[in-house]
Amino acid sequence: MGVHPGATNSRAKLWKASRFAEVARKLADEHDGQVVILGGKTEAELATEVQRALPADMALMLQAKTSLADLMGVLSELAIFLSNDSGPMHLAAALGVRSVAVFGPTDARETGPGRGESRVVREPVDCSPCLYRDCPIDHRCMERITSERVYDEASALVSL
After folding, report:
1. Does residue 145 contact residue 126 with C-beta atoms inside 8 Å?
2. pLDDT tens-digit profile of 103-131?
3. What is the pTM assigned to this prediction?
4. Alpha helices of 32-146 — where are they, by DSSP H?
């Protein structure tokens, strides 16, 4: 399975890396899988946080180590992909990869994965979609999304 905990152009789009790690670990444990951690050059801190939360033999760190072609190749081999609203999320959807995308300040109807076996997890709060790059209040759109909700969606897709 793959995890992309980043979102290059907006801190408000970031679901906690620790929650991505929690979901990935549970899925990998249940399905005897490996977790591939993906991300761009500026996302090292997030990728490292995921890596540190996983057993060393479970995580393969590919953050900042793939070209676009390599990324597409890695994505196409995944059983499931976990991501925020990001470029890799769109690539996974275009490739038909089963994906769970966590959405907060952006409108999933406008910028969601739209293709393939994808699910969007979002919290319907009165201030979303706001399209802010930094949340001026309490980031409730992302904070209220639990690991359990994302895990349930991912688990249902892995079981298809």
Report:
1. no
2. 999 999 888 997 668 999 999 999 888 88
3. 0.94
4. 44-52, 68-76, 87-94, 108-111, 140-143
